[in-house]
Amino acid sequence: MRQLFDRDTWREIFQSIKKNKLRTFLTMLGVFIGIYIYIVLSGASKGLDNGFEKEFETIARNSMFVFSSSTSKPYAGFKTGRKIQLKLQDVKFLRQQVPEIMAIAPRNVKGIFGTEPGVVKRGIKSGNYSVFGDYPEFTKIAPKKIYDGGRFINTADIEKERKVCVIGERTQKELFNEDEEPIGGFIEIEDVSFQVVGVHKFAGGGPFDNDSDIFIPFTTFKKLYNTGDNVAWFTIAAYDDADVIKVEKNIKAVLRRIHKVDPTDEKAIGAFNLGEVFKKIFGFSNGLTFLSLIVGVATILAGVIGIGNILLISVKERTKELGVRRALGATPTEIRNQIIIEALVLTLLAGLIGIIFGAATLKLIDILTANVELPYTNPTVPIPYVLMSLFLMVGLGILIGLIPAQRAVSIKPIDALREE
User: What rounded mean pLDDT belongs to the chain?
Assistant: First the structure.
């Protein structure tokens, strides 16, 4: 340990590096490339994780959208092409027969899926907007960011069929003046007056929502548009420990039984499974991280082996010098430590430069993708990963340094002094 802080030790190390600059550079290049690749690939996979987490931060990961279509097979006396209509009563059966369901929200809409948008007015201002009929349960799956002073649809709104609404921030800007408080104000939807009880901040709450959406109670929507118990689709979230692919299959099976659809008809009941998408995305990201680890470690190992080979050559070249030091009283331990420290310095120096360049590359990637519409943000490497790579380099540097160190110790002083 004392030798580590000895000025002469470090003077000899830097003299050796200075004497063979090109060889030292090429030796360190392997370790530099290895740690650089590891940092960049790990950071890139983390950026992908962060991007998708941000893109879908307001919707449950184990969620899905279940909808109906037309049958593709005849069944129970019904012909092919029969249109299946989801019903409000389906919720009860789904909860009973699929216990993995954490939350289920029936939804209706005017303004997407080929439906005419809702006509909304406020004084002389008007516009066409998507109007959703929702239950409070929806916020358990896709939480809404409501501005201070407002709220989302609640149970009392559903039970009393209240004419209240939650508008989007863009809808507020288009229908209200800047100095007007929207909460408590009124708008007209299809010539029916609705009181605004909240303004939601759009944050990507799923593939069907945007910043101009208007939400009203499901029961009020039913009366306004005369939809009865019809449901456009179900937004469903499974428990975190549930297999979302299996849950989707069970939900489809239940709906097929309810609506008398052939059990093998895959077209009558459709689904968009966000949980499955998340699983694939994070599986790919984890695979990329693992690949970066394998490639990085392999390249670092190759570089460290190169350092060991160079030090063996260096020991051979310094045979006479080492013999003189032994003759003057240097112990085998001092000679061994000298070589190991030299290996460690070269390995750590190359690794630290690789980490710095890797971090700079990730910062550049972050700047270049900041204004690009991609699910990618803040590509960084967690500190534990960086520390792990440093410990790996220290360990490999010490291990690989033992070989030339042992070679140096094995040189007999008398034989070294006779070396020309």
Answer: 82
